[in-house]
Amino acid sequence: MTGLPIISAEERMKEKKGIKGCIIGVSGIGKTSQLWTLDPKNTLFMDLEAGDLAVEGWKGDALRPRTWQECRDFAVFIGNFNPSLRDEQPYSEAHYKAVCEKYGDPKVLDKYDTIFIDSITVAGRLCFQWCKGQTQAFSEKTGKPDMRGAYGLMGQEMVGWLAHLQHTRNKNVWFVGILDKKTDDFNRAYFEIQIDGSKTSLELPGIFDQLITMAEIQSQDGTAFRAFVNHTMNPYGYPAKDRSGRLDMLEEPHLGRLMEKIKGPVKPASERLVYEQPKTDPESANANTESKPQPQPQTQGDQS
């Protein structure tokens, strides 16, 4: 009789854990060039953008998937299979075995600690192109293309692909994506990840450990510098998230050193979390409430 498969704290602390993150930023800010900050001996570059020019001379290995099926095959080859899936589903044991027959022994990937995927935007385009040819992308009544069905299928496919790679526990997996600046109906600026459909961009923060915006920041003296923005609550309105609790709001734009900091000693909970409520003067608060109009609810675009 087997016991409850509890993983002890000691075992959990000894496990090799990879970092899963996404770096987003406007075109030309230097996202792909972050590859130069990684060790080429143990980094695998998944080049979806054909963006070799930015890293010409980088001495690491690369994959160049051209179809969505290849993207799925590489994901299951890198991350192994999901035992909860049926044989006909992608990322199942049957899918994994078929891919191993095609590509050989997956131990060939043991030398790589980090998978760098450029970019999630192009992966979305490949996925959407594939989705437009599937049964769900056509109306059952008329047989004509149904874009709502195609976008719905794309959202499922992209989230499934990203989640499978996120569960690759022993490797670092970093995605690169393009960030768009948009305005809402009230001419207020907000930022959005450039990818077809809305489901993937909405779910990205929940999938990754780290969501980082690489941006140009203005210093107090007016000079500009590039930086990683890491905290959700930042004054610039950029999408960001730090699950590690080890990063400052702004960090130098060097992915190699950033990963070293993330893997460094963890801060005690007392230093990472703030429990105190803001102190207010009840009389002044009441006076302010009476003299000032009540704030209106924010719309979805309010992020700045």
Describe it:
With 304 residues, this protein is an alpha/beta fold. It has one domain: Rossmann fold (3-Layer(aba) Sandwich), CATH 3.40.50.300. The protein contains nine helices and ten strands. Strands 1, 2, 3, 4, 5, 6, 7, 8, 9 and 10 form a ten-stranded mixed beta sheet that branches. β7 and β8 form a beta hairpin. The radius of gyration is 22 Å and the shape is globular. The termini are far apart. 31% of the residues are buried. The C terminus is likely disordered.
Number of strands: 10
Alpha plus pi helix count: 9
Taking all Cα atoms into account, the compactness measure Rg is 22 Å
Q: What does the main sheet amount to?
A: 10 strands, mixed
Pick out the low-confidence regions: 287-304
**CATH topology-level name:** Rossmann fold
Q: Tell me, briefly, the overall form.
A: globular
The helix-and-strand class reads alpha/beta
pLDDT averaged over residues: 87
* SSE pattern: HEEEHHEHHEEHEEEEHHH
Which CATH-level-2 architecture? Answer: 3-Layer(aba) Sandwich
Beta-strand residue fraction = 15-25%
Distance between the termini: 57 Å
CATH superfamily: P-loop containing nucleotide triphosphate hydrolases
Please write the CATH class name.
Answer: Alpha Beta
Count of discrete domains: 1
* Fraction of residues in H or I helices: 25-40%
